[in-house]
Amino acid sequence: MKKSILATAAVLVVMLMCGGMLYAASDDYRVGCIFSVTGKASWLGEPEKKTAEMLAEKINAAGGINGHKLKLYIEDDQGDNTRAVNAAKKLINRDKVCAIIGPSVSGATMAILPVMQEAEIPLVSCAAAAVIVEPVAERKWIFKTPQKDSDAVRRIYEHMISRGIKDVGLITGTTGFGNAGRTQLKDLAPEYKMNIVADETYGPADTDMTAQLVNIRNAKAQAVINWSIVPAQSIVPKNMKQLNMTIPLYQSHGFGNIKYVEAAGEAAEGIIFPAGRLLAVDTLSGDNPQKALLAAYKAEYEARYNEPVSTFGGHAYDALSIVVKALEKAGDDPAKIRDTIETIEFVGTGGVFKFSAEDHTGLDKNAFEMLTVKDGKFVVLTD
Fold this sequence. Notes:
The protein is α/β, with parallel strands linked by helices. It has 2 domains: about 30-145 and about 290-365, 3-Layer(aba) Sandwich (Rossmann fold); about 150-250, 3-Layer(aba) Sandwich (Rossmann fold), CATH 3.40.50. It is about 40% helix and about 15% strand. The chain contains 12 helices and 14 strands. It has helices at about 1-15, 40-60, 80-95, 105-120, 150-160, 175-190, 210-220, 230-240, 260-265, 290-305, 310-330, 335-340, and strands at about 30-35, 70-75, 100, 125, 140-145, 165-175, 195-200, 225, 250, 270-275, 345, 350-355, 370-375, 375-380. The strands form 4 sheets. The protein has a 5-stranded parallel sheet with strand order 2-1-3-4-5, sandwiched between helices. Strands 7-6-8-9 form a 4-stranded parallel sheet, sandwiched between helices. Helix 5 (about 150-160) crosses helix 6. The chain starts with a helix and ends with a strand.
């Protein structure tokens, strides 16, 4: 009997070690992920999913988190608000996750906020709209990793001022991200003495913005600002080229995927936009606090997936890293995770984060660089 017990124990040890790792603790740390892996926002969600899987694999190969295996439960919301809500409920009620990262887009994030707040489960969103975390008093359980859209607007307006641009034409998508950006562009315009001479919108399924751009041209705008995350980021520059509009085109930080440039072709040349430093890591000085991390993430991602890194994958890298840091300090109690995130200072792909009870983004406008497209590549803007 004693030999039988010993033999069974030995078999169990071998089974636990067969994946290359023996975990000291019995329970996995369960983290939910909601990404737009398919659908119109897949250019955001797919690199986010790949990054989260890559990072979790690396963490587990190194022994997990305090002996606990990190287990991800990944849901694809297809960029749809209802699917996002259903995914959040499933992750909370069935999978019993201690935190969720994502969704990929602002609209889906806003849709699940009531679910997260009611369940008292921390959310670290990969979407950018400032309203996701503001006012903080009403967003106790909500954090995000992308830089704020309000700070993106500030960087764009500051650059326009440096070029003597005052009359601006807006063209924005009617998604949650597009609507939030449009609000920030209009609200901050008086502070920077910008004149919005045209204010045009389009739906996420629209494939031609010629009419809106003609209205902007007729309004004698000195520059165009397009704010969206849908394929329109590639359509607007192509339509401008067809109309022979040579005024500058600014895009939001949602432009940070080289696939948008590839889809726009030659029309993408000269586009200006704010973005994190991941897209221009090779140009950073050696003493930049982000350079080592950015270079390592870029190299690992591109070697594994054979595709260029994007800021969107970086948002997932930061979101999961923040949750992991909280798990290391506090275990998998959701309330303790939430409290711990408010104390985290962390060098990430999006910037140097410093969360607090008053700031659930942890970044300011200095997390952005102004980039442009040159010869089909992202480069730091020098003027």
